[in-house]
Each structure stands twice: as structure tokens, then as C-alpha cells.
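Memo to structure team: turn this sequence into C-alpha cells by end of day. - J.P.
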Amino acid sequence: MRYLNAGESHGRGLMAVVEGVPSGLPVTAEEINSDLIRRQGGYGRGGRMRIEKDRIEFICGVRKGKTLGNPLGLLIWNKDWENWKDIMASEPGPPSTERVVTRPRPGHADLVGAIKYGHRDIRNVLEKASARETAIRVAIGGVAKSLLAQFDMRVVSYTMDIGGVAAPSPNDPLMAYEHAEQSDVRCHDPETAKKMIEQIRAAKHKGDSLGGIFEVVVTNVPIGLGTYAQWDRRLGARLAFAAMSIQAMKGVEFGMGFESARRFGSEVHDDIYFDKATGQFIRKSNNAGGLEGGITNGQPIVLRVAMKPIATLYTPKDSVDIETKEPFEA
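Reply from structure team:
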């Protein structure tokens, strides 16, 4: 499977084409919309989250609730388009003089994007680089989850750290996920969640922002997904690529991850046993995070992703106007 997406943050909508979905896969807009609603929830959500009421539309590739084997066309309309349709119009006309952006914000794609693509109005950059784009990716992920569900595989996630306030590692990822669903910060541990919210409030009071770490677990994974045969087909590499393609992500680790660099090999590698009752090779630990040699080993896939603090701050950072070359506080 692969996908391409398109659309600007304040354009008419977000769209995607998903190729390689097998025929006969049950998919419904209702299931995907539930994930879109989850995306827009949580403590401290931004103003744009309150404006949009994202709903997916299947434009093609699905009939009567089942995929046809053709490419899927997905579309999410931007409700805020009504306030931007003149500024973001696709029809020929003079350059817009409203909401022109010439002041790049540190931590965003503004300056490098303007230089790379030759834009004098940075809005041409930020409209696509915006995290608004993740809405259509959530919808694409919903299709992928429907496929994995056919093999009784689940993908769950929860927050492990916000601003240095860390949650204990859960024993049961599925139970942790259920608890996280009840949390405003998607943390499985209620006491840690309270401290995380306090940390967010303290940062906001200072005009600052926080980063964090979330954990993703894939359960009921068979042995043999991925390969060592080619570098770009190693499953760990592909998952890391996908995670790092999300806006503001700065690091990925699997299993014991970076901690394994500080340990002896005897403390890191998972022993192999054979269960005669089931006829299966088993492990009693999962420091590898479910991957060895780019291939799944039958254990749950466990990865953690580090997100930098949001680059939009109440406390300004120094920058320079690309037109006047004068300094300003962004």
C-alpha cells in the first residue's frame, strides 16, 4: 500500500489517493470519523480544532461498504475555507494583499520552504507544511487499521511523557490504551496525567510550550513481516520513516531503544525458548521491540516517538523579515 495526499490548511479541502488496498475490505466512513474525532480532542487543543468538524468522504474505490481493489479516493472538506476562499482562490488573479506572510517563524518550515521554492509570500509554504495535513493521514490510517483488523492485529498508542513528566511503563498495552482513551492528555496513568496537565499549565503561564513522548504498540504480530533483503524494506526503517514524517517529531526508538546503547549485550538481547505445548518459538522479554533484522519476531511491535515543543509560542523568538531584512520577534 502507498498513498499520496494533497491540500492546503485553509484551502477547500484535504485529499488522498490510497493504492494497493485489497478488494473486499470492509471500510466505513463512520469508523474513520471516530478516529478523526479523537484527533481533535485532548487538553489544550488549538483554535483550529474547534473550528473544523472533520468528516471523511470516499470519492472512489469503495462500493456498499467494501473496497473494490481500485485506488481509494478520500476527501475532507475544510470548514474554514469560507473565511479564506478569496485569499486562497485557485483562479488566476493578482497576488493577494491580505494575510501575506513575510516573517518566518523559528521552528517552522517557513524560511527554508520559502528559499527552496522561491516564494515571497510564506503562506505558500505554511499552508502545506501545517499539521492540519495530519487529518487526512488519520483517515488513511483508518483504512490501514481496517486491513490489520482482518488479521486480529491492533495498533494502540498512549502518552508516556510531557515536558519531563513521565508515566510508568504499562504491563498491558491494550488496557493502557483503554485508560488513555479516558484521559485529556491520553495518558494511561491518572496520577501522571494530573501532573502532565499541571506542567502544561505552568508552561502556558510562562508563554512557553512543551514536547513529549508517545508509545505505539502493534499486537498479535506474526513472525516474518518485513525483510533484511533490501535496506528500504526493513520494517523498522519503514516505521521510523513514517513516524518521522509527522510534523514536529524528532526521534524514534524501538523496544529498549536508546537505553540499549548504555547496557551490556547480555542485558539487551531477548533469549529464545521453545514451547513444546504450542510448537512455537517464544521470548520472555521484548527489548527488541518486536523487530530483529528488519523482520517481526512474533512479539508486539513497540516504538516510542519524541515530539519537540510546539513552535508557536507566546514568548517570541528572534527572526528576520525576508523582504525588509529587519529583525523582529516572531
